[in-house]
């Protein structure tokens, strides 16, 4: 399996994505079924309340004995109270079950994303990936709350109304059933067909808008520096206008569909009332049942009113489900072995790399070709090399982020290809080139490496990274928030914080990829000196292009060559 690159082509969404989405939600059916029953019960109670009240009013006009209408009086009161209770239960159970289902599904989406990072995620733009993780996952909530549960309630009301009308007057039941089928099946089907293509277009447009917005926020300084704000704003406005046009088209479709439902409702009331009047004139139907049929024809369509909007939302849900299915189907860059072996734990271990060959595409050039390197246990090896020489690719192969096609990587005597990615990263981890500082406190950023670390552990790691004195000088000390990606820190403080986090993890093999990236030469030399001092006695692979501050290293290795010629390792 090969890693994906930013230029990879996203495959078309698979067939039946909505069914696949439902399969992810099925484990929560025990919580969702009571909500659907409560929704159906609420709509049935509303229709029954109106029909019973119509019967009671008409019957009371005939001035019968009180005993003959007492049951209807009790039924009206019970249905009125029951409708409110069922509506409350519908909202309570529905939101509880749906939110739990969506929370579980969101976890599964994150679990599907984890094996793709970091080599597989460049296939998606950051903003588009964010849209998939937020808006597209929330579509599962709408599938349940706005589509399936209202649809189930509408089916229950339509079936009950048609059955009741058929018992009272068969021809009225046939007419009502046909018009309910048109309003509840044919009209939503037409809305779904018209909205299906627009749904894919809108989801793609929203993903594009999210990506453009993220670029606008993160690149604001560069856009201002090069005077490109107007062009960037123009692209965002164009994307927004495109989404607005699609929204207007959807609103028009839904409005026309709702108008057709209202026409069906009016036709049902007129038609059923006319049939009932004829039957009453023929002496086949009583006046009380005539009123019940007319009211039943009117109220039975109330439960069908949300269906056009539900059909429109279903098309959007289908588009979101297709985009999520692409995420689920994306093959991970590195596949774990069927029966992964375990790496040795406890104490420093050595790394032995022989004839390593890595490339990022099957037909692409070699990023590493025949590289060999040995890191003895407890030694600090510095790997030097110019940009593009393959240093970061070597780290990615060590951490099982990218596969290697040939050669060998042995850690503690165990072949790395035989180990799962999670186990490999527990043994070989540290500070990657694109390491992130989270918008959280210093404590939270450090505890990411070891959640069970004590305050003493945090202080020891910060002291080793020469960061403790700065932390203790802050007003909020460990609870100081660092801003987005460490914006509240200097470059040197940010590097030391990431080093402290790597030291706190205390892996058997510590890797540090370009820890001084972006620092001035004097600060970079000081940080490298501190890193080598803090990692004394640890198996450490330090990747850098800086040459100052490396006097304390046990070994300095230079990686020469680029991605096209075969690079070689020269020991100094």
Extended strand count:
10
Numbering strands along the chain, what is their spatial order in the largest sheet?
6-7-8-3-9-10
Write down the Rg: 33 Å
Largest sheet: 6 strands, mixed
Oligomer: single chain
Mean pLDDT: 80
Q: Percent helix among the residues? A: 55-70%
Shape: elongated
| Cα separation of the termini | 36 Å
The share of residues in extended strands comes to 5-15%
Stretches where pLDDT is under 50 for at least 5 consecutive residues are 1-11, 562-572
Output the number of helix runs: 16
The succession of helices and strands, N to C, reads HHHHHHHHHEEEHEEHEHHHHEHEEE
Name the structural class: alpha/beta
List keywords for this structure.
disordered C terminus, alpha/beta, four-stranded antiparallel β-sheet, six-stranded mixed β-sheet, disordered N terminus
Characterise this structure.
The protein is α/β, with parallel strands linked by helices and 572 residues long. Helices cover 60% and strands 10% of the residues. It contains 16 helices and 10 strands. The strands form 2 sheets. The chain has a 6-stranded mixed β-sheet. A 4-stranded antiparallel β-sheet has the order 2-1-4-5, covered by helices on one side. α16 links the parallel β7 and β8. α1 crosses α9, α5 packs across α9 and α7 packs antiparallel against α8. The longest helix has 53 residues. The protein starts with 16 loop residues before the first helix and ends with a strand. The relative contact order is 0.10. The N terminus and C terminus are likely disordered.
């Amino acid at each position: 399996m090969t890693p994906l690159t930013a230029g990879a082509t996203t495959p078309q969404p698979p067939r039946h994505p909505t069914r696949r989405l439902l399969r992810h939600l099925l484990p929560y059916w025990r919580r969702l079924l009571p909500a659907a029953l409560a929704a159906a019960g609420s709509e049935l109670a509303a229709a029954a309340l109106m029909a019973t009240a119509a019967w009671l009013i008409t019957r009371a006009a005939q001035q019968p004995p009180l005993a003959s209408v007492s049951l209807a009086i009790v039924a009206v009161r019970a249905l009125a109270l029951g409708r409110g209770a069922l509506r409350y239960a519908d909202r309570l159970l529905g939101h509880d079950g749906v939110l739990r289902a969506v929370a579980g599904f969101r976890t599964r989406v994150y679990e599907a994303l984890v094996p793709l990072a970091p080599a597989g995620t460049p296939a998606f733009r950051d903003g588009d990936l964010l849209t998939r993780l937020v808006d597209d996952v929330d579509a599962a909530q709408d599938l349940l709350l706005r589509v399936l549960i209202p649809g189930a309630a509408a089916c229950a009301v339509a079936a009950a109304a048609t059955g009741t009308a058929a018992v009272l007057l068969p021809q009225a039941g046939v007419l009502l059933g046909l018009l309910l089928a048109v309003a509840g099946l044919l009209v939503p089907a037409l809305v779904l067909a018209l909205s299906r293509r627009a749904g894919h277009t809108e989801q793609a447009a929203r993903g594009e808008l999210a990506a453009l917005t993220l670029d606008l926020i993160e690149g604001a300084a560069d856009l201002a520096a090069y005077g490109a704000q107007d062009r960037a704003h123009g692209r965002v406005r164009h994307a927004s206008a495109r989404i607005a046009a699609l929204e207007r088209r959807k609103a028009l479709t839904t409005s026309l569909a709702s108008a057709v439902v209202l026409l069906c409702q009016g036709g049902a009331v007129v038609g059923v009332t006319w049939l009932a009047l004829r039957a009453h004139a023929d002496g086949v139907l009583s006046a009380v049942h005539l009123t019940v049929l007319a009211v039943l024809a009117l109220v039975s369509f109330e439960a069908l009113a949300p269906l056009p909007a539900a059909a429109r939302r279903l098309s959007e849900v289908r588009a979101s489900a297709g985009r999520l299915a692409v995420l689920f189907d994306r093959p991970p860059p590195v596949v774990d072995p069927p029966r992964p072996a375990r790496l040795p734990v406890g104490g420093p271990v050595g790394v032995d790399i022989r004839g390593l060959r890595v490339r990022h595409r099957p037909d692409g050039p070699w990023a590493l070709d025949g590289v060999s390197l040995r890191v003895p246990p407890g030694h600090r090896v510095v790997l030097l090399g110019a940009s593009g020489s393959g240093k970061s690719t070597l780290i990615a192969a060590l951490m099982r982020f990218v596969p290697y096609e040939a050669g060998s990587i042995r850690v503690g005597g165990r072949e790395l290809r035989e180990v799962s990615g999670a186990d490999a990263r527990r043994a070989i981890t540290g500070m990657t080139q694109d390491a992130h500082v989270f918008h959280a406190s210093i404590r939270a950023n450090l505890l990411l490496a070891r959640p069970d670390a004590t305050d003493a552990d945090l202080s020891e790691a910060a002291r080793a990274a020469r960061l403790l004195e700065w932390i203790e000088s802050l007003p909020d000390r460990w609870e100081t928030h660092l801003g987005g990606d460490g914006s509240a820190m200097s470059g040197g403080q940010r590097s030391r914080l990431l080093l402290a986090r790597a030291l706190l993890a205390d892996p058997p093999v510590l890797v540090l990829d370009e820890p001084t990236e972006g620092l001035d030469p004097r600060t970079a030399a000081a940080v490298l000196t501190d890193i080598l001092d803090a990692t004394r006695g640890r198996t450490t692979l330090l990747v850098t292009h800086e040459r100052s501050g490396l006097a304390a290293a046990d070994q300095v290795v230079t990686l020469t060559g680029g991605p096209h010629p075969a690079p070689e390792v020269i020991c100094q």
